[in-house]
What does this fold into?
Amino acid sequence: MDVGRFLLGEIRNLHNYLIDFSDFLPTISEAANIEVSDSLDIDGQSFLKQLRGEKGHPRNGFIAGFPEMEWAAKLGFIARNHRYELYESGKFYEIPKDYEEQNPIDLENLDSGAKEVYQRKFKYHF
It folds into this structure.
C-alpha cells in the first residue's frame, strides 16, 4: 500500500467496503507475502486491493460476535450488510438512515425490500 497516497486521500471510497475484524489477518499476511495456513480455519478475506485503490472482492455482508468478551456478549451476534444491521436481540436498523442506531425499525411495518432482507438473509442466522 502506498501510505502517502492513502493519507492524502487519493485512495477513495474505502469506507464503502464492509470489513470484518477477521479480514485483518489475511490482509496483513498478503501485504507481507505470507500464506495463511488453512489449519487456522478463518473466514476473513484480504482487503489489500481496496487499500491500494484497486478493485478487490468486497463483502456483501457478515456475521459477527465475540461471546468470550463480556461487553460484547451482552450485544450478542449481529448480521450486517451495507444497508441493514440485525442484532440477535431482534433490533433491526437501516444504517444509512440511522448510523448511530437510535431508532430500531418496527418489524411489523417493514417495506417489501427490508422484509425480504430480514427474512431471507438475516433472520435464519438467529
Observations:
- The radius of gyration is 17 Å.
